[in-house]
From TrEMBL:
Membrane association type: Multi-pass membrane protein
GO cellular component: early endosome; EMC complex; Golgi apparatus; plasma membrane
Subunit structure: Component of the ER membrane protein complex (EMC).
Annotated protein name in UniProt: Magnesium transporter
UniProt organism field: Suillus fuscotomentosus
Family: Belongs to the membrane magnesium transporter (TC 1.A.67) family.
Signal sequence interval, chain numbering: 1-17
Alphabetized GO MF terms: inorganic cation transmembrane transporter activity
UniProt keyword annotation of Mitochondrion present: no
């Protein structure tokens, strides 16, 4: 439950920071000073939104799965693993695939 709250707060804070940036840049443009840095409160709000978003996404993620060979073999049988094809080679097909049409082999 708290992870969804963090994600919602992060989204709202990021949208507010974006709107504040737009207002600030509009004000600078109206004053004829297009250069200038963003106020620190907008920067801090953006960083806070990033941290809240990362925390909310981390808490909202499902638990990690075990990816070892032993856990993979729990899902499969030895018969299923041994029934795979062996080493496949294409040497015998090469003469037919790469033969020119004038050879008459095709």
């Amino acid at each position: 439950m708290i992870e969804k709250l963090f994600l919602t707060l992060a989204t709202l804070a990021l949208l507010h920071a974006a709107y504040s940036t737009y207002e600030h840049l509009s004000l600078l443009k109206a004053l004829g000073k297009p250069e200038g840095s963003l106020p620190l409160d907008i920067v801090y709000e953006s960083i806070l939104a990033l941290i809240l978003g990362l925390l909310g996404a981390s808490l909202n993620a499902p638990p990690l799965k075990d990816i070892t060979w032993a856990s993979e073999m729990k899902k499969r049988t030895i018969d299923g693993m041994d029934s795979r094809l062996g080493f496949a080679h294409y040497k015998s097909r090469g003469k037919f695939l790469f033969a020119s049409p004038h050879d008459g082999k095709i």
